[in-house]
Every structure is written in C-alpha cells, then in structure tokens.
Q: What sequence folds into this?
DNA sequence: GACATACATGGTCATTTTGCCAAATATGCA
DNA sequence: TGCATATTTGGCAAAATGACCATGTATGTC
C-alpha cells in the first residue's frame, strides 16, 4: 500500500510542523531546524523521509538546501485531520468548504 | 501535536485498507479481518487505535461490533495522498475537484 | 589552498509498533 | 445452564522509529 508510506511520512509531530511551515513557502534546513528544535541531523533525516514520500522537493542554492511542498493539497489534507480532531466531522463542510 | 496522532492512526497499510473499506459503509470486525488478512486480535487492536484517534465509531449489535467512519472527509484525505503518490500534485484539482 | 558553513550519513541505543498466541468477556441460542 | 460465536486483552518477541553524536561532503570565502 503506497498510500501508507505517504501518510507515514506525515505521521510525526516534527514532520507535521515542518510541512505546516512550508505551506507559507520554501525554507532551508536551518530554518526548519529552528522551528522544530531538533538536532540538525534529525531534521535532515525527517526531510529525507518527506522527500522520499514525494511530499517535498529540494533545490540547492549556494550552501542551502531549500525545501518546498510538492503539492498544495496538503492544506486540505490537514483540514480533514483537524475535522477529525475536533471530533465533529460535520464541521468539515463549513471549515473546508468542500 | 494532536494532528500527528490522527495521521499516525492512519499510517499503516492495514488501517488504510480498513478505512478505505469502511468508506462504503459499516463493517464488523470479521469483515475487516477478511479484508486485511491479519489475526483477529491484531485487527481488533488496529481498530482500537482508529477509534482512539477519532477516525471511527463503533456500535454493538448482537454479537457484532460494527465500525463506521466518523467523518466522510477521509475520501478527500486519501485524494490528496493519491495526488502525492502520483507525483503530480497538479492532477489534484481535476481528480478531487476542489 | 585553508577554513567555515550548511547539510547528509553512519552508528548506536532507547522507545514504539506489530503481530501472533493464549486467555478473558460478552452475547445469543438450544 | 452450557455452548458456540464474536471480539477484546494480556503477554511477548521481532521489527521499525527517533534522537543524538561523530564524521563525511559540498560550497563559498579569504
């Protein structure tokens, strides 16, 4: 099940946080490291995971690696997740106007 | 991060498969067991996880426990996931008409 | 060329997750 | 009541994850 791999790549607080931050535009690894507050190497591995899953893309410019979301549908993805956490799935329609 | 817990609950091939099957309506544990082909106890634990995360609901009728999705937005959720696996996020708009 | 900066990789260890078996519970029926 | 069916719980061992440290690599600067 390929789906599970993608979902798995997002199933971690730090990775959720990073993807959320990337929704506003690309960021380099050190930006993301500041955001999640983990070791550089750990962040790097999380990003490698997201990249393998196809969630993000990278572009090297100078010394930095800039990560960006590969698909803007992630916001809808999170919208559903949030609908579930709010325990009221019916709020989904209004909140996400789908 | 509460989001991560919900996503985590969906981050397993068997659970993805079960949620997908439940999209067509409620099913009892033995139905789901047949679908995923795992031990009864294992399936039961997976379902407990999904329930804790708020993804599914249960109703006991007779000897059976009927599980159903708590939120129909899961189809949109998977739609995004599929858009990512297809590596072309742009297909998302058409495929999921959002 | 020497060195600092920005990341990625490899290694290791603790924690979590999975899946099976065995046993316990709950419900319906003879 | 006694028994079969449906499902949950309690171990437990194997596999996967996550985080850190140390090290390696690439790039820009002097």
A:
């Amino acid at each position: 099940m390929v789906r599970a791999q993608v979902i798995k790549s997002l199933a971690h607080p730090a990775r959720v946080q990073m993807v959320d931050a990337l929704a506003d535009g690309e960021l380099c690894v050190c930006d993301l490291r500041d955001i999640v507050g983990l070791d550089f190497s750990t962040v790097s591995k999380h990003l490698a995971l997201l990249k393998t899953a196809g969630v993000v893309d990278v572009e090297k410019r100078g010394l930095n690696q800039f990560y960006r979301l590969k698909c803007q549908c992630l916001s809808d993805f999170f919208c559903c997740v949030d609908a579930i956490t709010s325990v009221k799935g019916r709020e989904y329609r209004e909140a996400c106007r789908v």
